[in-house]
Amino acid sequence: MANGPLQIKAISGHAGTAPGKNTSRDYDVCKLIDVTTCIGCKACEVACLEWNGYPFRETVFDNSYQTMPDLAWNYYNLIRFNEFEDENGNFSWLMRKDQCMHCADPGCLRACPADGAIVQYTNGIVDFQQENCIGCQYCVTGCPFNIPKFNKTTKKVHKCTLCSDRVGAGLEPACIKACPTGCLHFGSKDDMKDLAETRAAQLREHTSHKSAGVYDPAGVGGTHVMYVLHDIHHPERYGGLPKDPHVPWLVRIWKGPLKWVGNLAMAAGIIGVATHFLRFGPKEVEPEGHKPGENREEKGGGK
Amino acid sequence: MSTAAALPTTQHAGVIERYTFKERFVHWFTGVTYLYCVGTGLALYTPHLYWLAFMLGGAPTSRFWHPIIGLGFIIGTLWMNNLWRHDMELTEVDRRWLDNSKAYVTNDEARTPLSERFNGGQKLFYWLMLYGGLLLLLSGMFLWFPEYIPRPSGWVRGVMVLLHEVAALLTIGGFIIHVYMGIFMVPGSMTAITTGYVTRAWAWTHHRLWYLRATGQK
Asked: A170 CA to chain B: closest CA distance, Å?
């Protein structure tokens, strides 16, 4: 199999099973972003554009170092600059590389109604297949991180692929390769967890960041992009990183119980009317002036 | 006796107009647009019916046309409301009919109360489609243009998808019964809604109060 490392374990909007369902490779891949050593150079942004073949976007000045307000369909990866002042008036820049988190329980994939438009590989990467995308943007509703972006011209949704094309060929993602400070790491999820916990412990012991920690939210089953944060109790300071992300329960309802209830009700309705016809048959027309029911009595049960 | 049963709609000469051309047109206009929306909608509703989207021109095409054709359905429904809202008002006659609807359902004509131009069941179905359609329009607008919902209000779309699906399922329930009755259960009604005419016997049997008024007998 040419794409061995990219065997699929979950498919959106799919009536059957997936070839790699309930299986896992020896290791899941993971990106680790140590925001405490990020200098906001945007090399990762450039590398992402270069690898994916997109032009640089127009920047939007907003009196800060923020390049543009949000991700875009052709801009998968954006450093969010946050100017933060603590209670003592100490100022700091909190910089966070924002992109798809590649959730173990992806809300986008759950919400998507299009067969094969979103897939999850056994190595943990969640990938959009634009040729199957129908442009409904349910993935936007399902995503707790506000990542998928819609292209109004092509009516397709795009997001970070975690460089599935590079990873499938045994290479690291383009952003990792470009990072000059070593704040970006790539490897197995287990290795990245070790590295992240070691770094967080180091921060707690040797710096003033006493609540440094690892962001790997359990609400979405863990993510294949993790952060080391200065203060794990306040992820929202890093430009809207949710504290406890999870797949919206409304999405769970309409993709779960409501489907089954509705499908069964429709089947029951069709079976019901068919049974009614077998039991009672069509209504008969009686001639004008006839007392209602006269025909019926004459016929008795011998019809 | 048996011939009369075999030819239920032609035993009496003479026909009477039941639906004008305008009424027939608007009925089929809403019917066809509704059917398209049901097909494309069910395709996206459940993976088991995704093949419907391929039958209807492909999934992205379905996503593109579903809301536009849906608007057509709403326009047709409002037009229909303009034609029928007085005929569809629920009255004491309908209450009696609905209280005894079991007799109608079991073809027990002797115990079925007489009805006007539309019986209680038809009226309920009418209001179900009208209000269901308006709910589908309201929720559908949020599904159509999600990019204009600001992110902090993103949950609204989750609510609207739920509402859209529930409203659609309710109308589908009514629609299954409507189609079954029109094609199988009440012979002569398909002729009525296509040609506009029913036999006098048909009108006498199914909508006697209307028939007596229409023929000046009451």
From this structure: 34
Residue B191 lies in a domain: yes
The distance in angstroms from the start CA to the end CA of chain B is 30
Residue A299: closest C-alpha in chain B: B1
Q: Does B108 touch chain A (CB under 8 A)?
A: yes
From the list A232, A181, A184, the residue with the least C-alpha distance to A204 is A232
- Residue B49 in any domain: the answer is yes
**For residue B130, what are its two tokens?**
């009208």
Question: Looking at residue B146, which CATH number applies to its domain?
Answer: 1.20.950.20
pLDDT digits (tens, 9 = 90+) for A102-116: 999 999 999 999 999
CB B105 within 8 A of CB B140: no
Q: Does B68 touch chain A (CB under 8 A)?
A: no
Does A295 sit within 8 Å of B5, measured CB to CB? yes
Residues of chain A with CATH 3.30.70.20: 4-247
Structural domain count of chain B:
1
CATH number for region A4-247:
3.30.70.20
B217-to-A106, A165, A174, A290 alpha-carbon distances in Å? 69, 81, 86, 15
Q: pTM of the predicted model, to two decimals? A: 0.88
Inside any domain, residue B3: no
For residue A3, pLDDT beyond 90: no
**Cross-chain Cβ contact B176/A273 below 8 Å:** yes
- Reported as a single tens digit per residue, the pLDDT across B121-168 is 999 999 999 999 999 999 999 999 988 888 888 889 999 999 999 999
Q: By the CB < 8 Å criterion, does B57 face chain A?
A: no
Contact at CB, B184 and A282, closer than 8 angstroms? yes
Question: B42 is in which domain, residue-wise?
Answer: 18-214
- Name the A residues in 53-82 with CB < 8 Å from any B CB: none
Instruction: Give pairs for A186-191: CB < 8 Å, separation 24+.
Output: A186/A29, A186/A30, A186/A31, A186/A32, A187/A29, A187/A30, A187/A32, A188/A27, A188/A28, A188/A29, A188/A30, A189/A27, A189/A28, A189/A29, A189/A30, A189/A124, A189/A222, A189/A224, A190/A27, A191/A27, A191/A30
